[in-house]
Write a structure and sequence with these properties.
- The chain has 285 residues and is of the alpha/beta class.
- It has two domains: 31-148, Collagenase (Catalytic Domain), CATH 3.40.390.70; 175-285, Collagenase (Catalytic Domain).
- Helix content is 54%, strand content 7%.
- A four-stranded mixed beta sheet has the order 1-2-6-5, with helices on one face. Strands 3-4 form a two-stranded antiparallel ribbon.
- Helix 2 (43-56) runs parallel beside helix 3 and helix 3 crosses helix 4 (104-110).
- The radius of gyration is 24 Å and the shape is globular.
- Mean pLDDT is 87; it is low at 1-30.
Length: 285
């Protein structure tokens, strides 16, 4: 009896599929947005070309290409509606402040030449989440695009923190930061940074727990935090740290960052902070 019921259900399913497909349906056609298809340029493509490709030779990839992301991870494409808002943030809060303070040629020379957008977070086996990567200073991958909101100040700052962090890597890979930076908090860097609280990191002289993962990460976390929080926001964080040793260490790192930007790239970091803060205020609705 069960065999007859199974056959009947299978027959109904087959008929439904046949009736549901018109002669014009092409079941072999690719699903738009999953990659592999050649799609006509649209208004979004024109906007990206005008704002990124033409002036800075930056390619922005938002249509899905599995070979641009880790193949072993489960990831999804970005919503089309999210692409322009997040890339406008990149332009307004990262590119334009650097153009104002260092010039367009500086951005053209050092900016990554490709941005790849991914809708979902990139979860790691240790329980952490990767929200951005920079490969050899040429390509930046931004994850969790689908959760980005122009109305969410903390979210905007968090996303731009990732971008300034990755650009900081590009800068120090071109011109190394002083060895003295590595000697401020030696012996306390750890691969288990994700088990460290903010308060614990502050007390040890780190501006974020992730800073403790290595000296390079420490350096760019300082850059990103100083820019995204601005001078007043950064000062508020540091002055609230109970540990005098922790405060002193972070202040030493802060001064090295300021001096590095001036000596390596002739950039007034305090002015860059002010410009970046104004850009954040103007962008967030």
């Amino acid at each position: 009896m069960r065999r007859h019921i199974y056959k009947l259900l299978l027959s109904i399913l087959t008929i439904s599929i046949v009736l549901g497909c018109s002669k014009s349906d092409d079941v072999s056609a690719p699903v738009e947005g999953l990659g592999g298809e050649v799609l006509p340029k649209n208004n979004l493509d024109a906007w990206l070309n005008t704002n990124f490709t033409q002036p800075y030779n930056i390619e922005v990839k938002y249509r899905w290409d599995p070979y641009e992301v880790p193949l072993e991870k489960t990831l999804v494409p970005p919503f089309i509606s999210q692409v322009q808002p997040i890339m406008q943030a990149v332009k307004s809060i990262w590119i334009e402040p650097y153009v104002k303070e260092a010039g367009a040629d500086f951005v053209k020379k050092f900016c990554p030449k490709q941005y790849v957008l991914v809708g979902s977070p990139n979860y790691n086996s240790d329980g952490t989440i990767t929200l951005g990567t920079a490969e050899g200073g040429r390509k930046v991958v931004l994850f969790e695009v689908n959760n980005f909101s122009q109305q969410n100040l903390d979210g905007v700052k968090f996303t731009l923190h990732v971008i300034h962090h990755e650009f900081g890597h590009i800068l120090h890979q071109n011109i190394a930061y002083p060895v003295a930076f590595k000697q401020i908090t030696p012996g306390t860097y750890t691969s288990n940074w994700y088990n460290v609280s903010d308060a614990q990191a502050y007390a040890l002289g780190y501006i974020t727990p992730y800073s403790m993962s290595g000296t390079d990460e420490d350096f760019v976390e300082m850059i990103a935090t100083m820019l995204v929080e601005g001078k007043s926001g950064f000062d508020a964080i540091v002055e609230a740290i109970p540990s005098a040793t922790g405060r002193a260490a972070i202040r030493q790192k802060e001064q090295i960052v300021i001096t590095y930007f001036k000596q390596a790239y002739n950039i007034d970091f305090r002015s860059l902070q002010t410009t970046t803060q104004a850009a954040i205020a103007n962008y967030v609705k």
